[in-house]
Specification:
The chain has 675 residues and is of the alpha+beta class. Helices cover 26% and strands 24% of the residues. Helix 3 crosses helix 4, helix 4 packs across helix 5 and helix 6 crosses helix 8.
Length: 675
């Protein structure tokens, strides 16, 4: 995914719409059978943008060597990575078909996404237009006189039964425009590309327009960054930071030999409101605010998205659930594994920023605390397992976190727990990195996906003799509703978690961040003070105790100023009605989770912390009597890790005593802990 795409999902009702007029055509040849028998010409897909002010793409598709008398052309219902129905067929207009010699032939729409062409076995072409006048983000398609951008599923149907055929894409863009696409070039003109099959074609978005470009290498990989729009970015810093992300990701999968591509493309849309990303095989498209580069916190969020989408090139594109490729584009595809595909990718984005030095320890722990807070404020975590939430990604309930748990959020925190516990039970020799390398090595070249059973078995095997403990974590956190024991897991790395309750009143309401309706209540947490007062999702808070409320910021300020157990009259607009409710705020505001290094952390914990996130292990704190020999015995770690006397002597700090030193006995070199 989208590192935070954030609004995805309705359940598979489209197949039950009853709109089929004729059964889709079938052929006697299995997919790929004719391609295996002889080398066939590539289909040719052309797209032009002659009248951009009309927001219409002109598309021409040429087909040859197709068996039978008729061929069905089918437009996908969805875009992989964005689990929502596209309804792209609504904007296809004026489709006509003709033979290669120009003779018109019949083309008939037989259901909402399928067009049937009667070609009599001859090569043929189809032409049509696609309207895309509203910018729908980096997962959609759009055209105006400034630029054109499209994900292929919005423009290009596939020949049913022949998705394995090679395709040549030719793009005729706007005058003076650059064409950005991660597909291999076909020829030297820069506007023709080649794909091995339909899946590869639509997994490479195309941007056409004037862009600023940044090119750099990280290891053996050539990177291209195309920026549409203006912003306060530095080419040098952006290249340097993306290089750090790349190098850190390579290390997780065993170095440069584990990189599955030789070039990678970032398409960045700098637009107000932009904040999402969508992964592809060797590229990503990301939307971001134009001026975030001067705001360290906002820029770090962008880097998190960049790391998330880059990591997806391994996790989801190569390590993937079985149903996510080859894709069934004609229907909604469900999997119970998005907590792993998206949640673990979110975890690694956080880890990568820490290890790459792009987030300080304080910044990383603050971000982690926010994730814990988000999960703990979600009543849905007690009603829906993370597997169920993954399966129902297409159908998120209207009342949000009251009945639904975010698989990005909880999946990330499950990854953290598994990582730390694997490091503990293996004495630092195995970790989540080890498991990801194992999964990648076993599945990257098979062409097959992984099942939930295979995924769990791989984790249990990594636990070795303590595999039952890993199985128990799956039972509690993945299959069940047990609360994640954050304090217990983070203590292994020397961190403590403090719950700090904000002062002031609290009605347990979530207001829409941006709304032209005033203080719009997006969510009323069930069981909270607002729920008890009779407030509902979608209400607009108009006044408190007769004083008008201008917007969400003022509403939050006024509620925070309320005394606990006091009574207040709330005026709300519900639809066309103005009504009043009496609310009694709870004492104290929301809980914040503060994560910090424990001053009394042991040397073993410091070693684990450094191996985990790369933060340098300080010398043991006063009062800590743990010996280096104990750390070596537990972690079998590299003696150079941590801050210790250069002569190898052990620093012993007895409780309340003075430092003493003694020389250690000679021993064989120890293996370094797993990264």
């Amino acid at each position: 995914m989208l590192s935070r795409l954030l609004s995805k999902r309705r359940f598979a009702a489209a197949l039950a719409l009853g709109l089929l007029l004729v059964d889709p055509a079938t052929t006697s040849a299995a997919p790929g059978a004719e391609a295996a028998a002889k080398k066939l010409d590539a289909f040719v897909y052309k797209v032009a943008m002659d009248d951009p002010h009309r927001h219409e793409f002109q598309v021409e598709l040429s087909f040859s060597d197709l068996p039978g008398e008729v061929t069905d052309l089918q437009l996908p219902r969805w875009n992989p990575g964005a689990y929502r129905v596209t309804e792209a067929h609504r904007n296809v207009r004026g489709m006509v078909a003709e033979t290669a010699g120009g003779k018109p032939i019949p083309v008939v729409k037989v259901d909402e996404i399928t067009w049937r062409v009667t070609h009599g076995g001859q090569p043929f072409k189809v032409r049509y237009r696609v309207y895309r006048g509203s910018y729908s983000g980096i997962g959609g398609a759009f055209l105006d006189d400034e630029f054109g951008f499209f994900n292929g599923v919005y423009l290009f149907p596939y020949a049913v039964g022949h998705k394995d055929r090679p395709i040549e894409l030719r793009v005729e863009g706007l005058p003076g425009a650059q064409v950005v696409c991660a597909l291999p070039r076909a020829g030297s003109g820069g506007k023709a590309f080649k794909a091995n099959d339909y899946d590869m074609l639509v997994d490479a978005p195309v941007h056409v327009g004037k862009v600023d470009t940044i090119n750099f290498k990280a290891g053996k990989v050539q990177f291209h960054v195309a920026l549409q729009g203006i912003g306060n970015y530095s080419d040098k810093k952006l290249a340097a930071d993306l290089t750090k992300i790349a190098d850190t990701t390579y290390a997780i999968f065993g170095g440069e030999e584990g990189v599955p591509f030789t070039d990678y493309t970032y398409i960045l849309h700098l637009r107000p409101g932009g904040r999402s990303g969508l992964e592809h095989r060797n590229s990503t498209a990301i939307g971001l605010e134009p001026w975030i580069f001067g705001d360290p916190a906002a820029y770090r969020k962008f880097l998190n998205t960049a790391a998330h989408e880059f990591f997806h090139a391994w996790n989801v594109k190569r390590i993937r659930p079985g149903v996510l490729g080859p894709f069934a584009y004609e229907r909604e595809v469900h999997t119970s594994m998005l907590w792993f595909s998206e949640g673990f990718t979110s975890y690694y984005a956080w880890v990568i920023l820490a290890r790459a030095g792009l987030a300080s320890e304080a910044e990383a722990m603050e971000a982690l605390g926010e994730q814990i807070k988000r999960l703990q404020e979600s009543p849905g975590r007690k009603l829906m397992t993370v597997e169920q939430a993954s399966w129902e990604a297409w159908l998120r309930p209207d009342d949000g976190s009251n009945s639904y748990v975010d698989y990005y959020n909880k999946g990330m925190l499950i990854a953290l727990a598994l990582d730390l516990e694997l490091r503990r039970i293996s004495g630092g020799q195995r970790s989540l990195d080890t498991v990801m390398r194992e999964l990648y090595g076993r599945w990257k070249n098979t062409g097959a996906g992984i099942s939930p059973t295979e995924l769990e078995a791989t984790f249990v095997a990594a636990g070795g003799g303590a595999g039952a403990e890993i199985s128990e974590l799956f039972r509690k956190y993945v299959h069940g509703f047990d609360e994640i024991e954050f304090g217990k897991h983070l203590r292994l790395a020397g961190y403590k978690v403090d719950m700090v309750q904000e002062t002031g009143g609290d009605l347990e309401l979530v207001f829409a961040e941006q709304s032209d309706k005033g203080a719009l209540i997006e969510l009323v947490r069930q069981g909270g003070a607002g729920d008890k007062a009779g407030l509902a999702n979608g209400d607009v808070l108009v006044a408190i105790d007769g004083l008008k409320i201008a917007g969400a910021a003022e509403a939050k300020r006024q509620i925070k100023a309320m005394a606990g157990n006091s009574r207040h009259t709330l005026t709300i607009q519900r639809g066309a009605r103005m009504i009043e409710r009496t609310a009694v705020p709870s004492t104290g505001g929301p809980v914040t989770y503060k994560i910090a290094l424990d001053p009394g952390a042991t040397y073993e914990q410091m070693v684990l912390r450094q191996a985990w996130l790369g933060y340098t292990a300080p010398a043991p704190a006063s009062g800590n009597s743990t010996l280096r020999d104990a750390a070596l015995k537990l972690f079998n770690q590299d003696p150079t890790l941590g801050a210790e006397p250069e002569d190898g002597s052990v620093v012993v700090v007895p409780a309340g005593g003075k430092k003493k030193t003694k020389k250690p006995a000679a021993k064989k070199p120890a293996k370094p802990p797993a990264k």
